[in-house]
Amino acid sequence: MKAIDRVLTARDKDRPKITDYVDNLFTDFFEQKGDYLGKEDASIYGGIALFHGKPVTVLGHRKGRTATENMACNFGMPGPEGYRKALRIMRQAEKFNRPIITFVDTPGAYPGLEAEMYGQSQAISGNLAAMSTLKVPVITIVTGEGSSGGALGIAVANRVYMLENAIYSVLSPEGFASILWHDSAKRDEAAEVMKLTAQDLYEFGVVDGIISERGSGLTVVNDGEQSAYSRLYSRIDKTISAALKEMKGMSPEELAQDRFNKFRSFDERYLGKESKARMENI
Amino acid sequence: MTSVVDLRKSKFNRYKDLRNNPSELLEPAIKPASEYTVWDRIYDIVDADSFQEFEFDFPETNPLEFQGYVEKKNELRDETDCHDAIVSGTCTIDGHKTVLAVMNKKFMMASMGIELGEIVCKTAEYAMEHKLPLVIFTASGGARMQEGILSLMQMAKTSAVIEKFKEQGGLYIAVLTHPTTGGVSASFATLGDITLAEPGALIGFAGPRVIEQTIGEKLPEGFQRAEFLEEHGFVDAVVPREELRSALAQILMLHSK
Q: Could you tell me if A29 lies within 8 Å of chain B, comparing CB atoms?
């Protein structure tokens, strides 16, 4: 499968959406709306639910299937209010000692006038900083498009997994081709060069595991039968359960430190030996 | 890479000479922005002779094996006397010991890759270890596309380290200069305890052209400029270049008591 095919598969409107994951992996979901600062941003969907009987906070980007649905959730592109809502409910999860599970599927944070006016940058950086200190387990699953800071803004997790045909990248292949080659038509080539597939990311050490989509009915052209997905939900369920089990014995401080270490050192293989830096005292 | 370091030192000395000999001193405040270099910036801000640069020796990085990337970097190293798009070190500002980093937009628009992200982190960690305030002059086009996902992840890395520094009581002053956008704007640039910005600096997550294409209309005058951010409550003060040194000195003094 070529990288561009994965990109198209990741964007397929018939792939399961956050609401499907919530319905199939959790029970007793209570949706929490609003950033409590003045706005509800429907492009982030989240709340409290039970996972195998234990309370968790679950949230993710919301994409729709129809034009109407997508208009309502802005095609999964959050503004600052979406990131602030996510942060609000994650802080609350920390207060009540609930693990946090996030699902990533976004073309990116919304590049709009109001989004800039109300602090898109600050909302995202605020989430990156705050998520790095959360004292509960955080698990992220990239289910579709994981594009740019808009994806990362809810993805600073102890464990990050990707579905087999999900993508995770610094920006869209179209954007990449347009910026570096001044030709957005070269997106197929860009997709290849960018190394954005689950396998690539696993090899880079950015994600901890790949969840197989084999036999789950997830292809570019989908038969639309929900039942075909059950195998996929079961694999995701197992992945989350195993990750929670791994983190079960960790203290709140250890959980934060574990996450910090992950993001501090994921790229150390590219940096050589630390002793090479010369930083003299003054 | 020793030649780069030597070159850099000789350039330092040239600036030092200019400082010591006011008749030859170019007035950086009236230099056109395009000629104002990272070294001009450092010598405008720090006390004379106080800057001690951190030196790093990272291996060459090209995780995507992106064609022409290493060649481009080597070319720019010769041109800018910087190994990547940031210079950092220790200094005093009006007598206050400070850790200082300045981003260099002449180096690939100061986009953030692994090396730049690591230098931001190591610099913040030095400040943390020595309990010194940290000042970063930001400028950036965003993430370093040529490093793919690893450049995106620098946002999380730098934000986590800056947050740790702040949690432990460190003072972080971000000075946003033209332009500060994308992955840098949405990470350590906007995490300051105190945030200053230079007049007219373009500061934002998405570039103006992308926004215009998305919303299909022209953006209002002054949109995403420093003054716009001040008006919307995201910077403490817009400070002209020639007053930045005294503004920093004042803030550092207020935190030293």
A: no
Per DSSP, the three-state class of B141 is coil
Q: Out of A118, A170, A278, whose CB is closest to B151?
A: A170
Q: Average pLDDT in the B25-34 region?
A: 53
Q: In this structure, what CATH number is given to the domain that contains residue B210?
A: 3.90.226.10
Please state whether A181 falls in left (phi above 0), alpha (psi between -120 and 50) or beta. alpha
**Whether B242 contacts chain A with CB within 8 A:** no
A163 at interface of B, judged by CB pairs closer than 8 A: no
Chain-chain contact of A116 with B157 (C-beta, under 8 angstroms)? no
Q: What is the CATH number of the domain that holds A224?
A: 3.90.226.10
What domain range is B242 assigned to?
2-254
Look up the ipTM and state it: 0.95
> In this structure, how many other beta carbons lie within 10 angstroms of the beta carbon of residue A268?
13
Structural domain boundaries, residue A40 = 3-276
Pick the closest to residue A271 from B121, B85, B52 (CA basis).
B121
Q: Six-digit token pair at A51?
A: 């996972």
Is any Cβ of chain A less than 8 angstroms from the Cβ of B248? no
Residue ranges of E strands in chain A? 27-31, 44-51, 54-61, 100-106, 138-147, 159-163, 167-169, 209-211
Number of domains in chain B: 1
Q: How many domains does chain A have?
A: 1
The structure's pTM equals 0.93
Q: Helices B69-80 and B2-20, interaxial angle, to 10°?
A: 30
- The answer to whether the CB of B188 falls within 8 A of the CB of B182 is no
Rounded Cα distance, A183 and A114, in Å: 28
In a domain, A151, yes or no: yes
d(CA B61, CA B48): 34
Q: Each residue of B153-182: pLDDT tens digit?
A: 999 999 999 999 999 999 999 999 999 999
* φ/ψ (deg, to 5) at B31: -65, 140
Q: Which residues of A touch B205 (CB under 8 A)?
A: 109, 111, 115-116, 120-121, 124, 149
